Amino acid sequence: MKKQDITLKLLIDRMSAAEKRVFKIYATAYEGTKKYLQLFEAIESQRIYNESELKTSFKGNFPVLKKYLFDSIIESLKQSGDYKDLDSYHVHEIEKYKILKHKGLDKAAEIQLRRTKKMTLEDEGYIKHLYALNQEYVAVFTKDSNLEKNKLKYVIEERKKVLAIITNYGLVSDVYFNLRLALKSIYYCKTKSDVKLLEAFLTPIKHFKESDLLSNTSKSMYYMAMNEYYTAIGAYDKALISSSTYLNLKRAQSGNNIELQTVLENANYLLLSLKCAKLFNFSEKLEWLETIMNSSTQPFRFLFCYERWYVIKLRYSQLIHTTQASEQFMLKENSRFKKHVNSFSLKYKASAYYFNALSNYLAKDFKSALHNCNQIINNLDNGLEEFLYARLLRIFIYVNQENYFTIDFECRSLTRLMQKEVLSRQNELRILKAIQKSPDFSSKDWKQFLAKSKSEFTKDKTLTYYLSGVLNLKY
After folding, report:
1. pTM of the shown model
2. 239-264 residue pLDDT tens
3. Can you tell me the distance from the alpha carbon of 426 to that of 403, in angstroms, rounded to the nearest whole number?
């Protein structure tokens, strides 16, 4: 049996009430049969898409009717503009030029083309700017005068410049996306081969100066790539500088919606600020993220913001406020968190469970802390950094529960795992050794160890980020 194409059903189901209303107005605005509107309502009413049932109700050439409905929905959705960005706007302006040119309004067309070129250049829409230059190239070439010949030389030079900018951007963006793709599986550098892999990706742009980046678009990609690289190797101070530089670049507005990339980079900046203990304008940026989250009407945009906001807000409460404040935050967000956590990306799911566990631990709710640690250890990827710290925190829980039978085994197992890491885990290994030696946090040996080590531990940004509350480190 031929498999049903449910694209049309999914499209209708994902339309908002307002979009459906606009479509119905759009459909009834024209005279003639409204069979496709009847099909729309029939599909809308189906809980599970059943094409055989629809074919029985709608005689004739059903595939043609179905395609006509699909195309009509797309045309109506174009009116809402929710999907539109700068690229869409540039296309609209180019279409205006082509209409004027087609109607023989050469002077008006020339003015419109000049306006479009200026706009695409200012917005760094270089692909569309190149297209506009190609239109000008043809227009100039078809005219016969010395003035136009000189203008043609100018257009050719402009095209060369724009092609160089596009090539430059292509090089930098390839590096960035290859880096991001690699980090989807390795998360951060755990071995020397991980480091070499990321360095190999960076080679084409590693020695770039700012003057080598021919547009703000290239600069954006460059600083995002460096941010990802420095974060992966644990150089958080350098990553924060790259992140801050990216956010301070002047970029063209892309429409009413804030781009997800802008949300991502602001969230990265907030996390790096926490890791580096540099919280300048932190509250304002966190409020901005919350505002974007609360104004998101699309489920994906909301979830993208929420998973980041939840982790950042919770850890900020733990570091700056009190255990009680973080517990209150978790209680307030409990139902919303449970509703969405299974849809979190792997990294943010692990971070959320870890800092939930940390809050539980600090509140001496060891049963809940252990449950959250086990969510990571038993269900998530062991390549995540949170996996290591969940296992370490679990050992602290066992100590407080006086579960001494498993402590030595867990310490030895985690020691072997951490010794494989290329990033320095010397402080974590010292903690494991100290616990094995004295699995009693009230003992004289443990207190002496902690007092002697606190200064060194505080300098370790990763350790402080994950364990500052547990070890009572100064943030």
Report:
1. 0.81
2. 999 999 999 887 655 554 567 888 99
3. 25
